[in-house]
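Comment thread on ticket #2218

A.B. wrote:
> Attaching the input chain for the structure job we discussed in standup.
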Amino acid sequence: MSVEDKIEQAVNWILESENFVAFTGAGISTSSGLPDYRGPDGVWTRRDKGLPPPKTPPWDQVEPNEGHYALVDLMDLGILDYVITQNVDGLHAKAGIPFDKLAELHGNLYFMKCLKCKRKFTFEGVGWDKTIYGPGYRTSPINKNQPYCPHCGGRLISSIVNFGDPLPYDELYEAIEKSKNSDLFFVIGSSLVVTPAADLPGEAKNNGAKLIILNLGETPYDDVADLRFFKNINEILIPIVKKVKDKLEKD
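C.D. wrote:
> Ran it. Output below, let me know if you need it in another format.
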C-alpha cells in the first residue's frame, strides 16, 4: 500500500471512529526543537555513541508545532476524544488540549501536584521558587518554609515522574480505560519502549481497536499495527488532518 493510500485509509478510519485516542511520544515535539530519545540524533542514541546530549532551546521558549495544533483541530471538531502523552514538555496543554482530555503520564515540567488532594498547581501559582526550595522532587529534602497545598495543606511535589517513581495512578487508570474503550488508537512519535505507558496500545488492540503507528523507528507493535508509517510526524499527521477537514467540509 502506498503512503497516499495509507493516509486515505487513516482519514477514513478517523472519520468512522467513535472513540479515537491519540498516544504521543517525544517524536511529536522534535519540530519544536526538542530532541527525541531513540531517533538518529536522540538522547539515548547519542549517549550510546559516547556523545553529549543534543542542544535544546530553553524549555520556556519552546512552542507547540503544527503536529500539536493538528490534534487540537481534531479535538475541536469533536473527532479526537483523548490524548495520552509520555512527554513532560507541556506542549499539548499549551496548544489547547484541555486537561480533562489529556493524560500526561510522566508529568508536566510546569506543574506541581499535591500528594494529599492530587490537585495541580503551577510553580508560580503556589510561590515555589526553585532557587530557594529546589526542584520539588519527591526525594528532595523538605524545606520547613516551603509552600504547601493552598487547598488542603498537603505536601507539594513536582509532577515530573523520575526513574523508579510510580506513574500517577489517576491518570494511568484513566489512560488504561480510554485505551480499552477506544476503537481507533493512533501512536504518534513513540518507540513504545517505556512501560507501563507502552502497554497501552496493546490494551487498545486487545479490545478491538484499530492501531495506527507513526514513528520513524521500529516499535514492538509494528507486526500487529493495522497501519504503519515510517515517516516524520508532520509529514503524515498534517496531511491526514487536512484531508479530514476537507471531507467534513464537503459533507
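A.B. wrote:
> Thanks. Noting for the ticket: The radius of gyration is 19 Å.
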